[in-house]
Design goal:
Layout lengths: L15 H7 L3 E5 L3 H13 L6 E5 L1 H9 L6 E3 L3 H9 L9 E6 L1 E6 L14 H5 L5 E4 L5 H13 L2 H4 L3 E4 L2 H9 L5 E5 H6 L3 E6 L8 E7 L7 H11 L4 H6 L3 E2 L2
Parallel strand pairs: 1-2, 1-3, 6-7, 6-8
Antiparallel strand pairs: 3-10, 4-10, 4-11, 5-8, 5-9
Helix pairs in contact: 3-4
């Protein structure tokens, strides 16, 4: 019997493995990765791969969507606890998790509206806010940047005074937008988001000792562990070929 060429098969009859290998990869990624990951997705597509489908939100929201059955192939979190959350539930593929990049935490204000602020133990941020001002950041109840902000403010001795005065956003980009619009006089965001913002100024960087290390765990979702394209994209994003782009957008590389 003559074998038919794979190219001669009707489109609907291509082997399942081939169709699966060419399907776009769905990536659930922390909002702070938006600009860099879009650039890397374009690089990936330029190499001849299908353009990844990118979904950005707070790590907490994405993790809960995956838990509820959302069809994500890769998960890229802005903190370790939300990756732990999924891993403990068996929703991440074993041995695919790594944390290749990091970030720093900064205090921002609308551009031209304030002077640098020394961020040290005892710095009175409450006094800077005045009687009605608020600090925008992610909701510490579930958004990673808010958790880092809470840790830093606790380290400074300011948490009890400032907790009632937080403008609690759904993700770091939403917090940044509140400052850009002048709706909050100050914000606590990642350095990379401050750099991407068009209308904010960095007033100071919180000491690394003031909060847990800001790392980004990447992992393959359990549902995609047999998908070659998803594994290849994860290897690219976490590997040396993507490193220059991560650095260009201000992320630190893991040592």
């Amino acid at each position: 019997m003559r074998r038919r060429s794979l190219l001669a098969l009707p489109l609907g009859l291509a082997p399942a493995g081939v169709a699966r290998a060419q399907a776009p990869v769905t990536v659930f990624a922390a909002a702070s990765l938006t600009d860099a990951l879009r650039a890397l997705a374009a690089e990936w597509q330029a190499r001849g791969h299908p353009a990844p489908r990118l979904s950005f939100a707070a790590s907490s929201a994405l993790a809960r969507q995956i838990e509820q059955g959302a069809p994500a192939d890769l998960f890229m979190s802005a903190d370790e606890p939300w990756a732990d959350y999924l891993q403990q539930r068996g929703l991440l593929a074993e041995a695919t998790r790594s944390s290749p990049i990091g970030n720093s935490l900064v205090l921002v204000a609308p551009a031209g509206a304030a002077r640098p602020v020394p961020l040290a133990r005892g710095t009175d941020l409450a006094a800077l806010l005045g009687p009605a001002g608020r600090i925008a950041t992610g909701d510490p109840a579930h958004v990673p940047v808010g958790r880092y902000a809470q840790a830093a403010l606790t380290w400074m001795g300011q948490w009890e005074a400032l907790a009632p005065r937080l403008a609690r956003a759904d993700n770091v980009r939403a917090a940044l937008l509140l400052v850009e619009r002048g709706e909050a006089p100050y914000g606590i965001v990642y350095a990379t988001d401050a750099a991407a913002g068009s209308g904010v100024r960095v007033l100071g960087t919180f000491p690394a000792a003031s909060h847990p290390p800001i790392t980004y765990p990447f992992a393959l979702a359990r549902r995609a562990e047999g998908t070659a394209e998803a594994r290849a994209l994860l290897a690219f994003l976490a590997g040396p070929e993507a490193a220059p782009t991560w650095q260009r957008f201000g992320f630190a590389l893991a040592r």
